[in-house]
Design brief:
Layout lengths: L1 H24 L8 E4 L4 E3 H4 L5 E6 L4 H17 L5 E6 L9 H8 L5 E3 L4 H5 L7 E5 L5 E6 L6 H7 L1
Parallel strand pairs: 3-4, 4-5
Antiparallel strand pairs: 1-2, 1-5, 3-6, 6-7
């Protein structure tokens, strides 16, 4: 019985920690990072900041909710990309599954940049402990929204913020 109570307590404590981390980053300056894109070129956050909002979408090929969310984020990207909006889909796939990223993106004909964070270094900077995880950065480089998980219609909130 004690083991069950301990497990339940640990579960709820971890959920509150995740929610706390999610709230903690809102209002902060977005940490800079430099990652490789699917073409093998480096992309640095600070070099693209300033023109408009930036959406960071942490995802992985093995994460079904991530793939559903990307369909919706692609619509937002297509709608606002001409207005200075930038979306960076940051794959957290490891070395074992990274080979699936480029074929998947190509099969969906996504145009937004995809970056590779195989060791989850950038994910840790943003407290992305689970996927999908979304961060919206304003043109001043401040985090104005973060969200863990995906449920249909949640992308409407992101769309309004953009």
């Amino acid at each position: 019985m004690r083991l069950i109570l301990l497990a339940v307590f640990s579960f709820f404590f971890s959920l509150s920690t995740i929610a706390q981390n999610e709230e903690d980053i809102t209002g902060r300056k977005a940490p800079n990072f430099k990652l490789v894109n699917l073409d093998g070129k480096y992309v640095e956050l600070n070099s693209i900041s300033g023109s408009g909002p930036i959406l960071l979408s942490f995802w992985a090929t093995w994460c079904k909710p991530c793939l559903e969310e990307m369909v919706e984020y692609n619509k937002i990207y297509e709608q606002f990309s001409d207005s200075g909006f930038v979306m960076l889909a940051i794959s957290t796939d490891t070395e074992k599954s990274i080979a699936k990223v480029k074929p998947y993106i190509k099969s969906k004909d996504y145009k937004f940049p995809v970056l590779l964070d195989t060791n989850s270094e950038v994910a840790r900077k943003y407290y992305a402990q689970q996927m999908p995880y979304t961060v919206l950065i304003n043109k001043d480089g401040n985090i104005v929204y973060s969200h863990l998980g995906y449920m249909k219609k949640e992308e409407k909130k992101v769309e309004k913020l953009v």
